[in-house]
């Protein structure tokens, strides 16, 4: 069976004692500071070395010098990394709570497959070649698959197992299509092999503005779902008894996760590991309360994504490693270490 | 299954059979020697039907190609009564491909069922745990870095799969291997290896990349007897070994403590079955590439067809074989001979069938 164990009635879901709450709030603050530091590093570090003065100049007294242009480019890359990172982490946390399966990630519900299939269609059949052009296709594909999975998984009384199976089934079919196209159309393969690893390098302010409304709406919606999702973690019957609207919560959670992942994937390709790992890490020190998991995931996911992006720029200078590759190579061992270190916190 | 119920009164057996099938799912078959076997009628029927389907599809597949041969001629040739031309085409060109398909499908189905049972998670298939990716990494290293021959790629894939399996087991080991930890560690390893694969493909030139993608999709093109014999030998050893431990596995599904109390040597059984599953999956992948979703969907489909609990090892095996051969036939019929590799179709076919099951079972209110 899918991991669907009834959660242990732990003290964690009860209101935390004031001291623990203070510690968690302080931790969140520290995480924010770390995020700012990583963001600054992401602007300062790259193929062209810049001093902090130049960074400052580029950020606040832009006069069009070479350094200023570089800072501008890296700024949009950093902003996109922040947005996408937060979106992936939040979506992962919401999906794991929704499916009550700690293995749930956007890939599981078919969202990556939908976006990938739409992009390959755009390249092969509509002749789209620019990254800006991919965005809408990817988003439409992700959204279509999200809706389809939700209805196939059973819009009324969607159970976690059915959602996961529906997602897997649709992914299977779409990846078959994707590979068929890539094998028959070499030009599509040439582009797709770079798109599918996930990269922030193509960030422009255009792309940011295209996805920003979706990311903002999804983030607000996801953060607002913490309470009902907390109730749902107790199992359907208990949740109903506690007054949660099961179907409404499921529909809204799917909507939030789909919008977040869809927009993130549209902007920079499928980055797979962030949404799976960060909620895991966060859960290991916050416990199962989503009112803490969601904000922590929002702050710490971009730390991972931007950190990985910076490292990808340093190790292969002057070329760079795509962020999706670095995230997995860095995150994988950490993830395994965490899994080994403790009895994984159940949802 | 031997049951010491020699003196069971005849009338008691009659009542057991008269009872609704839902209560006692099995039928007891007694032999004259005093042995009795409990047979799950539905599971048995499913296995027989799947075998028939697999063999029929195999015969049809042998007859399909640029030089079509009727099913009757195929059977005649297989029995040794065909003419020389047909014999060459059937025995040398097409039979090995079909046999590789059957063996790979069976191995993947069985390996998938084992992994899903050991991890106690329907998503805990070798694809998800990273074994497929491990084999792919081995093959990609050969293709991209060394521009290796087909045989080198096969060896690379085999080594990649086995090393990944070993790494997952060792990393998940901590006073025993917990099913849940196994899945999570597998996912971590899978993510790392996938990233490495993605990197290798972006570094390859386009010709190598195309070759790599075809390999990664899984294909039966150009398979010959050289692939059949090792696979057959391995299956001949591993399948009886696994089936002999099926009862222990079924008890393992109830949880380590219960299984231990019932007399199962938990860790030893699990290690044995895991090694068998890794060997089956890695060798199947080395022979045909990581054919997508067979290991994931075959056990699920088998379970839904037999409607019986437990790991459903034999039905899953037959399902995998049927799925792969039917998919290969479909890919040749629909897209033309050797245009698209079989992995494309298994993905689409498995996915669509799983969806269909979801929809129908939802209507029947069974899930």
Structure, explained:
The complex is a heterodimer of chains A (347) and B (367). Chain A has 347 residues and is an all-alpha fold. Chain A has one domain (15-341): ABC transporter involved in vitamin B12 uptake, BtuC. In chain A, 74% of the residues lie in helices and 0% in strands. Chain A contains 14 helices and no strands. Chain A has helices at residues 18-44, 52-60, 66-99, 111-125, 131-152, 160-184, 186-195, 205-224, 226-232, 236-241, 246-268, 274-286, 290-315, 323-341. The radius of gyration of chain A is 20 Å and the shape is globular. Chain A starts with 17 loop residues before the first helix and ends in a 6-residue tail after the last helix. Residues 1-13 of chain A have low confidence and may be disordered. By secondary structure, chain B is an all-alpha fold. Chain B has a domain at 100-304 and 339-367: Orthogonal Bundle (ABC transporter involved in vitamin B12 uptake, BtuC). A two-stranded antiparallel ribbon of chain B has the order 1-2. Classes of the chains: A mainly alpha (347), B mainly alpha (367). Chains A and B meet through helix 6, helix 7 and helix 14 of A and helix 8, helix 9, helix 14 and helix 16 of B.
- Given as residue ranges, the uncertain stretches of chain B (5+ residues, pLDDT < 50) are 1-24
- Categorize the overall geometry of chain B: globular
Which assembly state applies to the chains in this document? heterodimer
- Total domains of chain A, how many? 1
Secondary structure: helix percent of chain A:
over 70%
Main sheet summary of chain A: none
Largest interface: A-B, 56 and 57 residues
Overall SS class of chain A: mainly alpha
CATH topology of chain A: ABC transporter involved in vitamin B12 uptake, BtuC
Give the averaged pLDDT of chain B, no decimals.
Answer: 80
* Mean pLDDT over the residues of chain A: 80
CA radius of gyration of chain B: 22 Å
Low-confidence stretches of chain A: 1-13
CATH architecture of chain A: Orthogonal Bundle
Q: What's the total number of strands of chain B?
A: 2
The dominant shape of chain A is globular
Task: Identify the CATH homologous superfamily of the domain at 100-304 and 339-367 in chain B.
Answer: ABC transporter involved in vitamin B12 uptake, BtuC
Number of helical stretches of at least 4 residues of chain A: 14
């Amino acid at each position: 069976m899918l991991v669907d164990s009834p959660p242990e009635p732990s003290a964690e879901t009860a209101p935390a004692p004031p001291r623990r709450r203070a510690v968690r709030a302080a931790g969140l603050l520290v995480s924010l500071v770390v995020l700012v530091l990583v963001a600054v590093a992401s602007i300062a570090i790259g193929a062209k070395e810049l001093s902090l003065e130049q960074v400052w100049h580029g950020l606040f007294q832009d006069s069009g010098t070479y350094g200023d242009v570089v800072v501008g480019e890296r700024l949009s890359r950093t902003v996109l990394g922040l947005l996408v990172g937060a979106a992936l982490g939040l979506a992962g946390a919401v999906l794991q709570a929704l499916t009550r399966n700690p293995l749930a990630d956007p890939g599981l519900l078919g969202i990556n497959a939908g976006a990938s299939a739409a992009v390959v269609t755009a390249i092969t059949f509509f002749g789209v070649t620019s990254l800006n052009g991919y965005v809408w296709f990817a988003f439409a594909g992700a959204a279509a698959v999200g809706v389809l999975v939700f209805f196939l998984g059973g819009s009324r009384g969607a159970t976690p197992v059915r959602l996961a199976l529906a997602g897997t089934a649709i992914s299977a079919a779409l990846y078959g299509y994707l590979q068929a196209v890539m094998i028959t159309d070499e030009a599509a393969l040439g582009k797709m092999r770079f798109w599918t690893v996930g990269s922030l390098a193509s960030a422009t302010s255009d792309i940011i503005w295209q996805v920003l409304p979706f990311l903002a709406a999804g983030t607000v919606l996801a953060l607002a779902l913490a309470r009902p999702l907390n109730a749902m973690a107790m199992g359907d019957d208990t949740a109903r008894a506690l007054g949660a609207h099961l179907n409404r919560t499921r529909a809204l959670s799917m909507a939030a996760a789909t919008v977040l992942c869809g927009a993130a994937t549209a902007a920079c390709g499928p980055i797979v590991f962030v949404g799976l790992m960060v909620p895991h890490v966060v859960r290991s020190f916050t416990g199962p309360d989503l009112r803490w998991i969601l904000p922590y995931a929002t702050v710490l996911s971009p730390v991972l994504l931007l950190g990985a992006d910076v490292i990808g720029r340093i190790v292969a200078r002057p070329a760079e490693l795509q962020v999706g590759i670095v995230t997995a190579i860095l995150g994988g061992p950490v993830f395994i270490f965490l899994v080994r270190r403790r009895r994984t916190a159940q949802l | 299954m031997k049951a010491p119920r020699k003196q069971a009164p005849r009338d008691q057996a009659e009542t057991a059979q008269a009872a609704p099938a839902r209560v006692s799912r099995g039928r007891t078959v007694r032999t004259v020697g005093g042995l009795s076997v409990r047979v799950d009628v539905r599971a048995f029927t499913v296995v027989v039907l799947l075998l028939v389907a697999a063999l029929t599809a195999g015969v049809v597949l042998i007859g399909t190609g640029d030089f079509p041969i009727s099913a009757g001629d195929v059977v005649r040739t297989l029995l040794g009564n065909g003419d020389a031309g047909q014999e060459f085409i059937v025995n040398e060109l097409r039979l090995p491909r079909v046999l590789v398909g059957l063996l790979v499908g069976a191995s993947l189905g069985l390996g998938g069922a084992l992994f899903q049972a050991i991890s106690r998670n329907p998503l805990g298939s070798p694809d998800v745990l990273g074994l497929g990716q491990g084999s792919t990494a081995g093959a990609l290293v050969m293709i991209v870095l060394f521009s290796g021959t087909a045989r080198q790629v096969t060896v690379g894939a085999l080594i990649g799969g086995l090393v990944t399996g070993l790494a997952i087991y060792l990393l998940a080991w901590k006073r025993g291997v917990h099913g849940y930890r196994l899945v999570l560690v597998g996912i971590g390893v899978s993510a790392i290896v996938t990233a490495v694969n993605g990197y290798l493909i972006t570094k390859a030139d386009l010709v190598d990349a195309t070759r790599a993608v075809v390999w990664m999709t899984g294909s039966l093109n150009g398979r010959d007897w050289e692939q059949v014999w090792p696979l057959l030998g391995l299956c001949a050893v591993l399948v009886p070994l696994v089936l002999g431990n099926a009862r222990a596995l079924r008890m393992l599904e109830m949880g380590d403590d219960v299984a231990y109390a019932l007399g199962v040597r938990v860790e030893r059984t699990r290690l044995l079955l895991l090694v068998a599953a890794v060997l089956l999956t890695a060798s199947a992948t080395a022979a045909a590439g990581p054919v997508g979703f067979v290991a994931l969907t075959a056990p699920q489909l088998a379970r839904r067809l037999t409607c019986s609990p437990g790991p459903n090892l034999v039905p899953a095996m037959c399902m995998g074989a049927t799925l792969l051969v039917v998919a290969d036939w479909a890919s040749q019929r629909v897209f033309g001979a050797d245009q698209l590799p079989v992995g494309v179709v298994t993905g689409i076919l498995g996915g669509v069938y799983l969806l269909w099951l979801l929809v129908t079972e939802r209507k029947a209110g069974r899930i």
